[in-house]
Design a protein that fits this description.
With 601 residues, this protein is an alpha/beta fold. Helix content is 33%, strand content 21%.
C-alpha cells in the first residue's frame, strides 16, 4: 500500500515539476507545507503531563539503549513518569552567559544511545531562548555520538499561527523545523499527536523531513520549489532589510551606497513586532516581490537579546528566500556565539557552527559579512562566501587622530591582554607606529574554569604609555586585571581599544573595586541605584570608566551600547563602522576586490 502511494507521489511531483504552471506549483507547495500545521491544529494543545502519557519509550528501544534528557522545566515530571521503567535520566547543564548567549552540556556519556529529549515550550518565558537552547542540546547530543536524537514536546513556537497572519504565509513553522532538523541534526520530532521523522529518501533530495504517519510524498518542504522560479531579467535588483535595532545604521549605509557607489535599492520594512513570550510577528505586505533580487540584510546581536536578534536575522533571511530572492547577503558586524567555536569540554555543542548552519542551511543565507570574529577558523564552518572584514584600521585611524591632537602619546607600547592576542597586538603596533614599534602581552594562569590570574607581563612597559588591545570587551575582567598588572610594572597612562564592545552586566566581588565605582558615580553626580543592581551588579563599561588608570576607552559601534552607560564622554571614543560597511557592500555589489579590507595572516 505504502509503495503504491509512494509511486503515485513520484508521478504527481514529477508532473508538477515538469509540466505544472507557477500557480499549480504554489498550490502544491502550500498543500505539502501546511499539511503538518493543519494536522496539528486539529488537536487541542497538550500540557506536558498529558504529552508524557502518550509517549511509549519502548518504541525507541530497550532501557539499556535509550536515555532521557529533560529541560529544567520538565525534569521532575519526566523523572516521576519514567522512574519505574528503568530508563536513565541523564543530567544536563543549562545556563546563559552574561551577554545572553545560551550554553548547554550533557553530563554523562550517551555514546551509541537513542537520546529522547523532553522540552516544554509552554513554560518558556522567551520562545527564542528556549528554541536556540534546545537546538544546542540536540547539537551536543549528535556530537557526543548519540545513535538517534528525538525531541518530545507538547508545543512548538510558530506552529499555531492564524491563517491570515504573515507568519503563516511565510511558513515560520517550517523555519523552526529547519532549525531542528537541518541546523541541529534532529532525527525525530514528537509534537502533540504529530510525528516528524528524518528519512533518507532519494525522491526528495532537497528536504528529508516527513511524517511517518502519512504517505511519503506529503512533505513539509517549504522552500524546494523556490529554486524553480524564473529569474527576473535585466540589471541586478537590490533590496535592503534591517533588524529592529540597526535601522539607523542600515539607513546610513544605504544612503552612502547611493552617493558613493551609485547603488540604488529598495529599503524593505518587514515590521517585525515582538509579541507574547518574545514571539516575532511579521506584518505581511502583499506587495513585496523579491523574485530574482539580491537582498542585503543588516543585523547585529546585542547584549542580553542575542537569541532574539538571531531569530530576527533568521526570519528576515527565510522571508527573503520564500519570496524568491536569488541572493541573500547577511551583514552581521558581530557574529553571536563566536567564542563557542570548539568543544572545550566533552558533550558540549559547537555553538558557532550551529549558528552558521542555522543561517545558511535553515534560513537560506548565501553570503556572510562580519567584522573580526573571535575565531577566524569559523570561516571554514560554511561552504559559502564568508567575508572576514577587519575593523582594525578604524582603531589605527582613531589613535593617530588622538596622537595628532595631543590626547595620546606619540610613542607607546601595544599590549595584548593574553598570549592568544599577541600577534594582533603586534600588527596593530606596526600599523600605527611602523616597524620599530614595541609590543607586549599578558601571560595568564587559569586555576579553574572562569577564573584567570595574571602570571607575568611580557615586554617593557615601565614609564611608558600602553595601548591595551583586544577583540571583545565582555565582563572587562581580563582588561581590569591587565590594567592592574601593567600599573604594577610601572606603566603610565593606559588606553583600552576594542573591536566589539559587548559590555555585559557583571557582579563585582572586590570591596576595593566596589569602593572605586561608588566614589566614581558620586563624583559624576550619578544616582547609585540607577547603575548598581542588587548584589552589586554593574555594566562592564562603567567598570572600565571608573578605573582611575584607564585613560581612554576606544570601541566600534558594531553593537549598540545604551547611552546611559556612557558617563564620561571625554574618556569614551566610539568609532563608526558605517563607512567600512559602505565600502565592503559597495565593492561586493560592483564585483571589486576586498583584499585590503579582509583580515589576512
Amino acid at each position: 500500500m505504502v509503495s503504491s502511494i509512494e509511486n503515485y507521489g513520484k508521478r504527481v511531483l514529477g508532473s508538477l515539476l515538469i509540466k505544472g504552471g507557477q500557480g499549480v506549483r504554489k498550490a502544491f507547495n502550500r498543500l505539502t507545507t501546511y499539511w503538518l500545521i493543519n494536522e496539528y491544529a486539529k488537536q487541542a494543545p497538550y500540557a506536558m503531563p498529558e504529552m508524557l502519557k502518550r509517549v511509549s519509550l519502548t518504541f525507541w528501544g530497550r532501557p539499556g539503549n535509550v536515555v532521557l534528557i529533560a529541560g529544567p522545566e520538565s525534569e521532575d515530571l519526566v523523572r516521576n513518569k519514567f522512574s519505574n521503567h528503568n530508563y536513565r535520566l541523564i543530567p544536563a547543564e543549562f545556563k546563559s552567559f552574561r551577554n545572553g548567549e545560551s550554553y548547554v552540556r550533557i553530563q554523562e556519556t550517551i555514546r551509541k544511545k537513542t537520546v529522547v529529549i523532553f522540552r516544554d515550550f509552554t513554560q518558556a518565558s522567551n520562545f527564542n531562548n528556549h528554541l536556540i537552547e534546545t537546538c544546542l542540546l540536540i547539537d551536543a547530543a549528535k556530537r557526543a555520538d548519540a545513535q538517534e536524537v528525538v525531541l518530545v514536546t507538547p508545543y512548538l513556537p510558530y506552529i499555531d499561527e492564524k491563517k491570515d497572519s504573515g507568519n503563516y504565509a511565510i511558513d515560520f513553522f517550517k523555519l523552526v523545523l529547519n532549525l531542528l532538523f537541518k541546523a541541529a541534526g534532529l532525527d525525530e520530532l514528537r509534537v502533540g499527536n504529530l510525528t516528524i521523522n528524518r528519512q533518507t529518501n532519494g525522491l526528495f533530495l532537497f528536504d528529508k523531513i516527513f511524517s511517518r504517519n502519512v504517505a511519503p510524498f506529503m512533505i513539509a518542504h517549504g522552500e524546494n520549489l523556490s529554486m524553480l522560479r524564473e529569474k527576473t531579467p535585466g540589471p541586478k535588483d537590490l533590496v535592503f532589510m534591517s533588524g529592529n535595532n540597526v535601522a539607523d545604521l542600515a539607513r546610513a549605509v544605504i544612503k552612502q551606497l547611493e552617493t558613493r557607489y551609485d547603488v540604488c535599492g529598495e529599503k524593505l520594512d518587514l515590521h517585525l513586532m515582538v509579541g507574547e513570550k518574545h514571539r516575532l510577528i511579521y506584518a505581511q505586505n502583499q506587495n513585496e516581490n523579491l523574485n530574482g533580487k539580491s537582498v542585503y540584510i543588516f543585523q547585529t546581536c546585542d547584549t542580553n537579546r542575542i537569541n532574539d536578534d538571531l531569530m530576527e536575522a533568521l526570519i528576515m533571511a527565510y522571508t527573503a528566500k520564500k519570496k524568491g530572492a536569488k541572493e541573500i547577503v547577511l551583514v552581521m558586524p558581530y557574529l553571536p556565539y563566536g567564542r563557542q567555536e570548539r568543544k572545550a569540554h566533552t558533550r558540549e555543542p559547537i555553538s558557532a557552527k550551529f549558528v552558521l548552519n542555522a543561517l545558511t542551511e535553515a534560513a537560506g543565507v548565501t553570503h556572510v559579512i562580519t567584522l573580526d570574529p573571535h575565531a577566524p577558523a569559523t570561516q571554514g564552518f560554511v561552504d559559502i562566501p564568508f567575508q572576514f572584514i577587519t575593523a582594525r584600521h578604524l582603531i589605527v585611524e582613531g589613535v593617530r587622530k588622538m596622537m595628532e591632537s595631543g590626547e595620546w602619546a606619540k610613542d607607546f607600547v601595544v599590549v595584548a591582554p593574553d598570549v592568544g592576542r599577541g600577534k594582533a597586538a603586534r600588527k596593530l603596533g606596526v600599523e600605527i607606529l611602523g616597524p620599530d614599534s614595541t609590543w607586549g602581552e599578558i601571560d595568564k594562569d587559569r586555576p579553574y574554569a572562569g577564573e584567570a590570574k595574571v602570571a607575568a607581563v611580557i615586554g617593557k612597559v615601565k614609564g611608558r604609555d600602553v595601548l591595551l588591545f583586544d577583540d571583545i570587551g565582555d565582563s572587562a575582567g581580563t582588561l581590569i586585571n591587565a590594567v592592574g598588572a601593567l600599573r604594577s610594572k610601572g606603566a603610565k597612562r593606559i588606553m583600552v581599544a576594542l573591536i566589539h564592545g559587548v559590555f555585559s552586566d557583571v557582579k563585582i566581588d572586590s570591596p576595593e573595586e566596589r569602593d572605586i565605582i561608588l566614589r566614581y558615580l558620586k563624583a559624576k553626580g550619578k544616582r547609585v541605584g540607577d547603575y548598581v543592581k542588587e548584589g552589586f551588579v554593574v555594566n562592564a563599561l562603567l567598570r572600565l570608566q571608573a578605573n582611575p588608570y584607564v585613560h581612554k576607552i576606544v570601541f566600534t559601534d558594531s553593537l549598540n551600547v545604551p547611552e546611559k552607560n556612557i558617563i564620561d564622554h571625554q574618556k569614551i571614543v566610539k568609532l563608526s563602522i558605517a563607512d567600512l560597511l559602505v565600502t565592503v557592500c559597495g565593492r561586493i555589489i560592483r564585483g571589486e576586490s576586498l583584499q585590503n579590507y579582509q583580515s589576512e595572516g
